[in-house]
Amino acid sequence: MKFIVANLLLLMPAFVTAQPAERYEVIIDEIMADPTPMQGLPNSEFAELRNVSKHAFNLKGWAFCTAHSRALINTDFFLEPDSIVILCPSSAQAPFSPFGRTLGFAGFPSLNNDGDLVWLQSAEGKTIHALNYQLNWYHNNLKQLGGWSLEMIDAHFPCAGVDNWSASVHESGGTPGKPNSIAASQEDLIPAEILRSYMSDSVTAVLLFSKSLDSSDAVNISHYKIQQGAIEDVEVEAPLFNEVHVTLQQAMHAEEWVEIEISNLKDCSGNSASFLKSKLALFAAPDSLDIIINEILFDPPPNAADFIEIYNRSTKAIDLSQVYVGNRNPRGEISSLKRISESGLPFLPGEFVVLTEDSLGVLRNYLVKEPRNLVQVKELPSWPNDKGVAVILDRRGMILDELVYDAKWHFPLLADPEGVSLERIDYNLPTQDPFNWHSAATSSGYGTPGYENSSLRNAGSGGGMIQVSPDIFSPDNDGHDDFARLEYSFAEPGHVCNLTIFDINGREVRRLVKNAICGTTGAFSWDGLDESQRPLPMGVYILYSQFFDLKGKVQTFKQIITLARRS
User: Fold this and answer.
1) For residue range 86-141, what is the model confidence (pLDDT) as tens digits?
2) What DSSP designation does 108 have?
3) Does 308 lie in the same domain as 205?
4) DSSP-assigned letter for residue 559
5) b (16+ CB within 10 A) / e for 242-272
6) 90-100 residue pLDDT tens
7) Based on the domain organization, do 305 and 411 belong to the same domain?
8) 355, 385: one domain
9) What is the largest CA-CA distance in the chain?
10) Same domain, yes or no: 434 and 498
């Protein structure tokens, strides 16, 4: 008997180890969620696992999980170091076998086409790797429609998220059993940031971070400090480990605000966030017009989607998981209601939130000063290009705000409204007043998603003004005064501007801006080039600015700009 056992041990791979796997030693590095239309691979969903450790692991007892299902591997399967296995339904094992080692098993979870939470769990119940893929991970509007897998770019950063994944570029639509077609070296040097924080009850603060944390480090209470109170406990939520629950020793009261500070917190890549802070308050139910519609894009550019921006004009912390957005059907009934968030989403006083089906499309087409203010939802109500209705409601069905918009509200001199948002001018004037809306300014890029509108009423100056800064600029690319910034300001939106540069002899050298839509504030810049993009000689130049509105009122300004160059 001893002889038989000894020989069996000799037949087993020398690198098989009995020690349990640690997090990220085996990773999910390719996913096929939607195999049709087929490009050259079997018509089946699959996931690819890669062993990036120096140990081999028996996958028996491991589980491949999604947010809605969990499938157990019931057979012995040894995954050697630096090797790959294709996970798929048992019915697809034979078709996938020519591509590499394949493990088919009953109950393989169905992967949602538009995004899903998936993770790998060891036999000991430990989360080994988890990811929450979304359509924007493809970085390709065509491939996200189906037939192409998602591949990880650099296996050294398994928790980097959207920046470390993209659609396969292999002609077959994916690379199951082989190195990924987009494999490349990446860097992950950006520490985690707080995306949002809220109180789930009177003693529990929930902190959601931009990336997965080092879970063994994140539970250390010394990282957290709260004003006028003490912390009882800290837990990090599996499987993504990007959500921290902090238990307070003393309960918070209604309308009380506290600030939590976080220091030296490590993420899963080892980056340390030296100092973070966030405000906390108990959620309060919104009243009518506590949340208002502040900006809407209903006629997006071809490579983007609609968006709607809401603004919290109250003094309350509001939970957007209890708020819905909708429209009205032809009978005038509220319809197509969509819940803004499935989990707690704090909306603090004075904050903006932008709802869209395509956050990357918004980022591609507009300046977004605070990307965390973008909330990607699976589906928004339909808002036609000519006219329509947008409604914001709470969970009780009370209308918080409603906008019956019309494309005719756009600035009359606007040549084409495609890609131009409508902005609210005044938070306190009626939503349904057509004169409280205006096209986003040219200088803002025709939209201001997630921050103050370009058309926001300016209480400062009664007339118009334009300022040049600096008076002397030197476009030599040394990082100091390389361009002249031309800032304008008006009390009301609705102006068109023309900016022209003349030399000291009165000759036109650059038509900088022609018939641009101006908001209440904005800016343009001059880089010292002429109309043909050639450098102009050093000297004194004249900026001639002309602003006119629909009433025929014209304002003109002349200012001196000095262009300096190195001799």
Assistant:
1) 999 999 999 999 999 999 988 999 999 999 999 999 999 999 999 999 998 999 98
2) P
3) no
4) E
5) bbbebebeeebeeeeebebebeebbbbbeee
6) 999 999 999 99
7) yes
8) yes
9) 106
10) no
